[in-house]
């Protein structure tokens, strides 16, 4: 009997736990002013990647049972600034239901006058309104009141734990936990700007940009296969490349992007257009497992 729904989650969870253990070590052991600041700077980007895994977890919990899921969500909360069920309400129940309608989308990239927000405006607005919007979704949908109760209760617990850390050592708590939480939430919002901006359509296959870069997808749990993710958002992250291959011929060839820093330093997030040969090569990977099974 295993605790995990999918064995592919074992190594990622071990890595998240290791990072959290290192965070705690720096928090309790650092006695100078510069180490917490250095630690904060070194982990800005990696904790942004962890945000992708927190996102996957709140679509499909990694453990079979509630207690280990809640414990993992405390770790995720300190690493990413997104607490238990915040993504579920804001993103899974909200954004995934409404992303084709910019008047309702919880992560809308349009201003009320219909013009497109810039990166900074979108990122700040999405990050600052994330928790109020999650609360609003939970209050407006009675079928998700249980999730709302978990969200509120776990958020309060996270605040209490963070308060205890500040009481013990406010300086280390600031740089090891609170600032990384805030920055990770902002970086996550910034990254989502490039998922859908400018794509106003009612067709799921035409509503997302995709990233095929292997390093990016390794670090983010295949988040680059974003059309596939929106087509079947309850699908485990390990199965997204296969679904993308099945959809490849239906996804416009111009709905691809370069990954961001540190994978690409020049032309970060730039738009790409696949050649017909590249599209066919992607589609062929979906047929290969079927031929092998036959």
TrEMBL record:
Q: Which UniProt keywords apply?
A: Membrane, Transmembrane, Transmembrane helix
Which organism was this protein described from?
Melittangium boletus DSM 14713
Name of the molecule in the record: Fatty acid desaturase
GO biological process entries? lipid metabolic process
What positions does the domain Fatty acid desaturase occupy? 32-253
Pfam families, per the entry: FA_desaturase (PF00487)
Instruction: Indicate yes or no for the key word Glycoprotein.
Output: no
Chain segments annotated as transmembrane: 12-30, 147-167, 173-194
